[in-house]
Amino acid sequence: MNKIAVINTTITEANENQRMDNFLVTQCKGVPKARIYRALRKGEVRVNRKRVKPEYRLRCADVVRIPPLRMTEKKAPSLPPQRMLQQIESSILQETKQFMVVDKPAGMPVHGGTGIKAGLIEAIRVLRPQCKFLELAHRLDRETSGCLLLVKKRSILAQIHECWRAQRVKKHYVALLQGRWLSGSIRGVRAPLRKNHLANGERIVVVDEEEGRPSETIFRPLRQFDQAVLVEATIITGRTHQIRVHAAHIGHPLAGDDKYGDREFNHAMKQKGLKRLFLHASSIYCPLADIPEESIGLCVLLPDELQRCLQQLKSKRI
């Protein structure tokens, strides 16, 4: 066991408006939450020499006293492999003092977890050790490639979350779907989604009109092929697996989708060279009210492996 001394820390812009309890959880890694809340109840934690409640919002220049708290010694986290670090460094599309946009490769998880030593966010933190705050603004499925937004300030993260709630974030994907599309039509899909677990523990997302969360996707056809159609998918909401489930729901599952797709169609696309899910986050736009000159807007081309697959398909008129 390890015991730390009393710490007095001054709050900066990076932690402004953060809840007291959440701040302590990040500062006292390895300390049980029950111990943190007990320290708050007993007044062991002070802000400007005064007691505070867990929901207290920190302000710039607040001086926080953190008492000695016992924590379990943990092994140092394993570093991401050098090859992964180099791949991510070369995938950074835009970087400012406020945010970073990365062209996430397909097959790379955005964060570590069970059986995953390190994801993209852990690797970025290794690449940018000078950044005291560095978080994902949203997520992409492991199988999906394309624009991924990270932020370097808590205040910017709060702005982006507010933009999501107000539906001011514009996020577009390019996807290859099964079948023929109704000539030139744009289709809006509103189908509530709910997370579910199968008997074997596999996580899936299903359409559930009664208990699902409101979800909306707009599909616009770009190019028709013999067996498939290339579309632009715009998400109005941002649910897990939303595009994949909505596409399957309307009878046009994604190419290469082993979870929600069509086995025969996937096999046919594999014969055309497709070795992954054909879903790419092609662009993102997010207005930042406080710094409009740094509003986020970026587009990224299809990866080479997806372009090569399209070259093997025969075009038809939409």
Structure write-up:
- The structure is a single chain.
- The protein has 318 residues and is of the alpha+beta class.
- It folds into three domains: 2-71, Roll (Structural Genomics Hypothetical 15.5 Kd Protein In mrcA-pckA Intergenic Region, Chain A); 82-154, Pseudouridine synthase (2-Layer Sandwich), CATH 3.30.2350; 168-316, Pseudouridine synthase, CATH 3.30.2350.
- Helices cover 22% and strands 28% of the residues.
- The protein contains eight helices and 19 strands.
- It has helices spanning 20-27, 33-41, 82-89, 120-127, 154-165, 242-249, 263-271, 304-311; strands spanning 2-3, 7-10, 46-47, 50-51, 63-66, 70-71, 92-95, 99-104, 135-136, 145-151, 170-178, 187-190, 193-197, 203-207, 216-225, 228-235, 279-286, 296-299, 315-316.
- The strands form four sheets. Strands 7, 8, 9, 10, 11, 12, 15, 16, 17, 18 and 19 form an eleven-stranded mixed sheet that branches. The chain has a four-stranded antiparallel sheet with strand order 2-5-3-4, with no helix packed on it.
- Helix 3 (82-89) crosses helix 4.
